[in-house]
Amino acid sequence: MADDIKISKKKPIFPVSVPLQKYLKNYQREAHLSISYTDLLNFKEAVPLMDKNGKDTFWESPIYPPHEIEALHNGLKKVYAMLKASGNLRIVQHKYIDRIDYCTFGNTHPFRIKIINRLNDVYDYFYVKRADASRIYGMEIEHLLSPNQLNFLVDRDTIIEEHIPGIPGDVFTKTHLTNPDYNPKRIAKEFVKFNERCFITLLGDMRSYNFVMQVTPDFDDFQFRIRCIDFDQQFFEGNKKVYLPQFFKENLPFVKLGMEYLTEKTFIQYQQEESSSIVHRLRSERNRIAQLRDVLGTDKVSTPENVKQLREGLAEHYQDIQYLKCNSMADIVELNLKKLIRQVKM
Q: From what superkingdom does this record's organism come (predicted)?
């Protein structure tokens, strides 16, 4: 059943600590950028951005002083070159910045940049966001433990993120879920795996508008993959249901698919498949994950009250008193992964 789960709308922005900065530098996630998040805030007016049907998108188009636009656009092209080609400016010599969008919805208030190749009109997007340790940990864990790789860079108070293509989950449920060419069992299977992965890694607030569905034609069918696009609620909340997408009312169409097309045995089978995949990635990246765990163990990414609530909730959920010994979100995630390794070995 879907619940009306309360989420901390004003979760604090956690700064990037010195140990986390060192980790990012060690794994080529750190960069010295020509444009910062603060630079893009230098506007006084903005106009609402509407979609093709005239509906408000919750994004705005900032209006910058004319004398600053050229320098701003040149800086953004250099940032794009850093993200895509380690700073090789040849990839942007025929590109121009078409639009800068700003969103006041959410914690990080992101900027979305549209860049176009003038030779063939092919365009791409990337994002400039305020650096938040929660988000960085979330993206790094997603990169290491999920089937999805993420490309991002951090420079002090700024994160640069690659665009993740796909159909927004809420749009998919409204316009694609009943497509007769789509196998509903495959969609339900993917949601079960996504649900399991979020719960293990403590990725919270996965409502349908916080993830996208990627649809790939195969030789005899379509394959589906759910990809998270919002990591702001990575292991912050104390309510265990926040980390289970199945409990959000926005995801009810996916839950109904599972209830209609999956049996209890297939449900458990898909959970086990995802657990085995996570353990395989754990073993492949054990040194990097161990370093990330050590950094996370020194960092503040939640509150003592939330840690207490979550460890008690998970102790009851798993019937395992070991959770009551956890003193941080790092301890809880580590225990989740250790339990997973033991289960897969059984």
A: Bacteria
